[in-house]
Amino acid sequence: MTAERIAAPAPTREQQVLDRIERARRRKAVVREERITLAHGAGGKATQTLVEGLFVEAFRNPRLAPLDDGAILPATGDRLVLTTDSYVVSPLFFPGGDIGDLAVNGTVNDLAVSGARPRYLSAGFILEEGFPVPDLARIVASMAAAARRAGVEVVTGDTKVVQRGKADGCYINTAGVGLLDRPHTYTATAVRPGDAVLVSGPIGEHGVTIMLARGELDIEADVASDTAPLHELVATLLDTAPGVRLMRDATRGGVATILNEVARAAGVAVVVDDAAVPVRPAVNGACEMLGIDPLYVACEGRFVAVVDGDEAEAALAALRGHPLGEGAALIGRIGADPPGLVLLKTAFGGTRIVDTLVGDPLPRIC
Amino acid sequence: MTAERIAAPAPTREQQVLDRIERARRRKAVVREERITLAHGAGGKATQTLVEGLFVEAFRNPRLAPLDDGAILPATGDRLVLTTDSYVVSPLFFPGGDIGDLAVNGTVNDLAVSGARPRYLSAGFILEEGFPVPDLARIVASMAAAARRAGVEVVTGDTKVVQRGKADGCYINTAGVGLLDRPHTYTATAVRPGDAVLVSGPIGEHGVTIMLARGELDIEADVASDTAPLHELVATLLDTAPGVRLMRDATRGGVATILNEVARAAGVAVVVDDAAVPVRPAVNGACEMLGIDPLYVACEGRFVAVVDGDEAEAALAALRGHPLGEGAALIGRIGADPPGLVLLKTAFGGTRIVDTLVGDPLPRIC
């Protein structure tokens, strides 16, 4: 009887949502596939269609902002940011970090680039039966250390264990709550022609590190993950440059994916100077051997900022004055034409379109 | 160089935490195992030792309350609750619900029994390559419907996909933020002798439903999950009975595990009248065939409340006046002796100790 009473009102609402998803599917031709592929989790086009065609259609509400990393939450006069990420990186331990500090820094960074002061984290673990406890202890200790560095507290958590063969050692979800002290919000639609595009440091280190750490490739390179908490660097930038339009940490899909989202959301052209994009030689070398473009490779301690063009030099100097931003660079400008596209000016005077990531060349990097 | 700079301060702090965990391990003899077992995720003793010996030691801070479901967050005058749960139920669809409404209701209920008004949810999906999109659509629609019923908004999310064989179709994490409008907080340490113990309805329906839905047992029973949002029922109770000490939703580990936590935390005896515990005949029959005690079987739409003994009848009437509480019952009393134990008075006049769940008779019920 209880079940009947509870189940009765559900189908109507569920059916409405399913109908809405189906209408969106026909209208926008999204999520054509019948089955989930690795590309749906890669942060590129397939992820975007999945999010827009399914989750946004289902959950739509004024505060659900699919292009922003966190949700702004009014709370009787104060504003909060809530964000979440699950971490499924493989291997769990890699040069420069592990899944633990990644899970803290990643969520801290989502809060920071939303303009919020990161404060509280939740942590949900999905563990595979047989996972070594010492490894879990290492991961948890790494999380605690990262939380301390980032000035956040892990205030609640959950642990599930699944049977052998139903996970891959350890998955972690962190949700984060941050406080919005500043009056501004930072969104892609604020970007306009004449703005400058900055990155806070050399790109692609995390993604290349993970690929090489898997040991499946016969490539050796002196690289380590750039995983780091960006809240101080972001605060330094915001204190210097009130004309910051948007910040985004360059994780899955890399810098190229962020710039494409900016171009589309603001209806502008993003023109990137290839020679100005900071990439360390070891990362460049590995990318060349692997046949991938560093612009698509994930960072876990770098962000892209679009700032008022008049403030570009001051913003750059501010970033470079902080240890985590000393490799910052001005990599491009926002133009009016062609709207919605990212163009790369190459060293040889050519120009090519940098599209959103398609498929999944780098599964489970975070 | 970046990696060196970032990694350098970490080992010290990490080592401190590892040392702390090791000291706790020697002192309290917790987490003896070298490897994670299914019991670590079952909500019983092994989970408790894992949480206390590892996570609490690592993350310890004033707001980390391992026995409470949510964390109370002061926010410049207002108070918030943040909570999280990952859902790994198998099968994903079962009579009375699915992983989607379970993931919403479970987190809503954690907020509600903390005394908070549930407001915002995050949703993190870990999907297995090859998972059918229509199934995902059903799950998401079910979440949306459940969110609407519970008056919450899913305001942010994340999607990861792992390779075939590295998950089991779909895992979901939800984190929830609730607003604490009431001045009270509800904790086990407030419980005292003379208080009354209530359950909001018949127990064990969710757990039995899941076990039977797996189809591995040759048992048929007319049962459905009791998954439901409890925020209104909780509000009804709190409006009536200002002497509510503690509320807990009876999920993994069941009513028995909650009562043991209360007995230990408050240093009291919990005396339960077996004949007063509401269990539907179909659940009772299935439990008898399976050789398990309904007191250990999970509910997803029931909670335990400990209230001032003088308010017991009023509280019971308030619960029974709400559709989700019409099967509520007064099942026991708090005594002074023996402290830390849960005693069950049987129909035959005997008394036996009801211990915390050991091992994991029911893996992946939520």
TrEMBL record, chains A, B:
<dbReference type="Pfam" id="PF00586">
    <property type="entry name" value="AIRS"/>
</dbReference>
<dbReference type="GO" id="GO:0051604">
    <property type="term" value="P:protein maturation"/>
</dbReference>
<protein>
    <submittedName>
        <fullName>Hydrogenase expression/formation protein HypE</fullName>
    </submittedName>
</protein>
<dbReference type="InterPro" id="IPR011854">
    <property type="entry name" value="HypE"/>
</dbReference>
<feature type="domain" description="PurM-like C-terminal">
    <location>
        <begin position="192"/>
        <end position="338"/>
    </location>
</feature>
<dbReference type="InterPro" id="IPR016188">
    <property type="entry name" value="PurM-like_N"/>
</dbReference>
<comment type="similarity">
    <text>Belongs to the HypE family.</text>
</comment>
<dbReference type="Pfam" id="PF02769">
    <property type="entry name" value="AIRS_C"/>
</dbReference>
<dbReference type="InterPro" id="IPR036921">
    <property type="entry name" value="PurM-like_N_sf"/>
</dbReference>
<dbReference type="InterPro" id="IPR036676">
    <property type="entry name" value="PurM-like_C_sf"/>
</dbReference>
<dbReference type="InterPro" id="IPR010918">
    <property type="entry name" value="PurM-like_C_dom"/>
</dbReference>
<feature type="domain" description="PurM-like N-terminal">
    <location>
        <begin position="68"/>
        <end position="179"/>
    </location>
</feature>
